[in-house]
Amino acid sequence: LSSLIEERLGLYFSPDYRELLVEKLSPRAVERGFESMLDYYYFLRYDAAAATELLAIADVLTVNETYFLREAAQLRALVDELIVPAASAGQRLRVWCAACSTGEEPLSLAALLDERKLLDGVQLVASDISERALQIARRGHYGTRAVRSLEALPHWLSREGQQHVVSTRLRDVIDWRRINLLDEAAVQALGRFDAIICRNVLIYFRDPTVQAVVSRFHDMLTPGGYLLVGASESLLRLGTPFACEERRGAFFYRKTDS
Length: 258
Known about the structure:
258 residues; 7-stranded mixed β-sheet; 10 helices
């Protein structure tokens, strides 16, 4: 079952996490009427409805831990070093926030662009495998954990009771998509981008999956385009076709060929 989940979703659960995997999936298997995890496995492996059920499993297994302006220095450097000069030259860039979780990351980027009056000059696409997470992003209502940064979007958040609500201006400018990063056809259908942000996600994949996903990102970037990963996610050991650059203390991977 672990191997199947890795094959279809990319998420890796080592033998040490067997009990956790069973704990997370058993309620779902019971809810669907299966008498054993083996029966559930055979359904997921061979049944025609398995693809839909695997997406439901993604909702159960994914951890949506993020907040506004997380690793903000990298986002600010992206805006100031790539997007502002391009906009000044009359270009309209496309940026994809892959595996955006509950949306705080693309919304933070949208706020930074709006600060510079560039929000309408950049096409923003945000995707995640979890429909539950995307529903939160589209609704734009967040608890206090999401706004733990002291500078978290003061001009774009309002209060409704205990909830912080993001302005519709930011939410509506983003094209929210449900995408499995291992679904090659769905990913390629998004087209090409000038920058791809995929942060704090690759740590859940094993190296072969990381290499496949990163290679796909490389193909989707325009010449000289940038890939942003999390501070704890280095691609250098994998020998990927990117050049690592430092901008304002933040690291970027630049596509070096056409």
